[in-house]
Write the structure tokens for this entry.
Amino acid sequence: MERYRTILEFLLLPTALAVAGFAVRLARFGAGTWKQLASGLVVSAFVGVLVGLGAAEANLPPKLQYAVISLSGYFGGVLLDAFQARVLKAVKYLPGPGADQQE
């Protein structure tokens, strides 16, 4: 039973909240094509789960987690692109293999 609670808490609820955020974005701007609609749903759900896991790890209060997850669904791919740029910038400055060896 605990396993199902974990799945519900960390996957289904964030996915549903993120998709709700995406639905608000659709209501404001429309979908365009079916492909854009489908890809937007997948991206928003993915981002929602990632943000949900991060919010839980940061021990945010549940209501704040729900708000952050819903907003991440609204932002969708834009948030994913911003996170990608941030990670790539950070990785650029990591020392390469063997950098800690003295010559």
